[in-house]
Specification:
Blueprint lengths: L6 E7 L6 E6 L2 H21 L7 H25 L13 H11 L5 H19 L6 H23 L22 H16 L6 H18 L8 H12 L4 H4 L1 H4 L1 E6 L6 E6 L34 H8 L3 H11 L8 E6 L2 E6 L1 H11 L4 H22 L1
Antiparallel strand pairs: 1-2, 3-4, 5-6
Helix pairs in contact: 1-2, 2-3, 2-4, 2-5, 3-4, 4-5, 4-7, 6-7, 7-8, 11-12, 12-14
Amino acid sequence: MSKTTPTWSCLCLSNDKGGFKYVPRLRHNTRRLKDKALNSLLLAIELFNRPQERGRVESVLLLLQHAFEMLLKAKIFEVRGTISEPGSRISHRFGKCLGIARSDLSLLNENEARTLSTIDGFRDCAAHNLLELSEENFYLHVQAGVTLFDDLLQRAFGGHLADNLPSRVLPISTNIPQDINVFLDTEFQQIRELLKPVKRHRAEAHARLTPLIIMEANLQDIPEQPTTPELDLVARRLATGEEWRAVFPGVAALRLDMAGQGQTFSVRFTRDPNAGPVRIVRLGEEGDEVTLIREVDSLDRYSMGLRDLAVKLGLTPPKTTALMLELKIQSDSECYREIRVGKTIHRRYSPKALEHSKEALSNINIDEVWARYRQKQRSESATTALGS
């Protein structure tokens, strides 16, 4: 039996019909990580529903992010038998767990990965800076988090969050915003009020803008905290009357998918399929119809080297190189980036490069691609030899 093949437990009682069913016997550390995930999630729910506000937002975000990190690590450990890189003394960071869960395990789709990345961004800001969320905004992200946790728990381990809660408990209770556009219009109107000269509430406006900028950044796959100059720029644009949908095009394209009631009530963030594409500002670039966040280099976003990509594609590194050239992957900044760390240049590929490559392999003959690559290499070698 291979190291990653799960064994099977004895028969287990079924809750609904009183019969028996087989359940997988998880690794010991998998169970511990999963239990930690549930503990943090249940504490986050308890603190969200507490009757006082002191420390409520920060504690809920810290525990919610920790719940997801432990749940992702539980699945990664179950499949790989480890949650750290060879020789490393520390376990995977949250961004690395997201990359593995999405690219290697196919546990997350694009919208879900962005929801988790946004929650992680909120947690970072709450832990290290100032963050202010309106009750409606806070509710939407926590409820979306609880919904996603239940989805992942079922997807990864065949369980449900409701199995760990009394039937009398409603996971998240508050006033539910039914229309995200109405909610966002109100949110930005309140921020504009804070930005009026007579109000002098610039710090409060920045704190309210921070989670919205984090959302926008994560919708563009740029998990970065906003800088003070970026906050000032966005505040000026809103204060001068610019439409918030032009400043936050990614957020403007969000839609809420609500379903169920009671313990089965769910909220998911989705993107309007009719929304136009959003262009990202590159360093040194100017333009009118662009987002407020510039793109930054990130080893978390470009998480694979050539060998990593080759393993995931089931190809040799030379054939992977041939495929990258054939598909012009290195010409797409969303797929490939050269990142300088000190004096070393790392050539890195994103999950999007892996997705494009897998799709292309189903429609092309890799042997023909390899033959063309080899012929080009021979021709270039011959030209070099003649030139010398």
